[in-house]
Amino acid sequence: MAHEKASRMVVFVGFLWVLQSVGRVAFAVVGTPAGMGQFLDAPISDATSIVLFVMFLFLGVFGLIAAFGLLTRRKWGFWNIMVISIATIAFDIWGLTIQFTAIIGFIVPAISILTLYPEKSKLLTTMR
After folding, report:
1. Sign of the alpha-carbon dihedral angle for 34, 39, 45, 49
2. What would the pLDDT profile of 13-60 be if each residue is shown by its tens digit?
3. Phi, psi of 36, deg, nearest 5
């Protein structure tokens, strides 16, 4: 029963990361390096737009890789989810200085850390 619960939790978190990562990549593709400001209420500089583009692309691609690793029950997937969660939270803390809706970006990383990390020992013993 506990193994089944852990499996459902891994699939749920992996699914959330796929959704968030696809969304971040889509924002980067639609926004382009110079056009990320179109999604914001406040005007931003070209340099800030480029930073947003790079970070959305980076977090999206690496989030998909981490989700794949987690969903295929790899230990590196678990640890990558933790690292990308922390990186996403750090990026979105900076994002809050630009627009308050960046707080939405905290949801998936917080769920990931709060649900997976307490089960770390149990999960890692079932992963390759």
Report:
1. negative
2. 999 999 999 999 999 999 999 999 999 988 999 999 999 999 999 999
3. -65, -25
Domain residue extents for the chain: 2-125
Find all residues with CB under 8 Å of 104, minimum gap 6, and list them. Answer: none
* Distance, CA of 128 to CA of 72 (rounded, Å): 9
DSSP the chain: -HHHHHHHHHHHHHHHHHHHHHHHHHHHHHHTTT-GGGG-SS---HHHHHHHHHHHHHHHHHHHHHHHHHHTT-HHHHHHHHHHHHHHHHHHHHHHTT-GGGGGGGHHHHHHHHHHGGGHHHHHHT--
